[in-house]
Amino acid sequence: MAYIAVRGGEQAIQRAEQLYRALNKKFDGEFVRSIERHLPYLVDRVMGEGSLYAPELAALALAQTGGDMYEAILLLRAYRSTLPR
User: Fold this and answer.
1) Per-residue pLDDT of the chain (85 residues; tens, 9 = 90+)
2) Helix and strand totals (H; E) in the chain
């Protein structure tokens, strides 16, 4: 893997953030509930791999990651690590 220098400074960062926000529209609670309702096996898989039974949080993690199961699992694990034992 090669290292590639990035140019553009602050303007490049601002453009990247604009692109990110344009591609990732805001979602509401109904969208999260629809993921939970229509993709139960995916939600179950995220909960199982994340070792936390929380269907709403698993659906929210899937929504936040754009459906990327592995990233959603990481989010759920990170949240679980903040909970008291």
Assistant:
1) 666 666 667 887 788 888 877 877 777 889 899 999 999 999 999 999 999 999 999 999 999 888 899 999 999 999 999 989 8
2) 5, 0
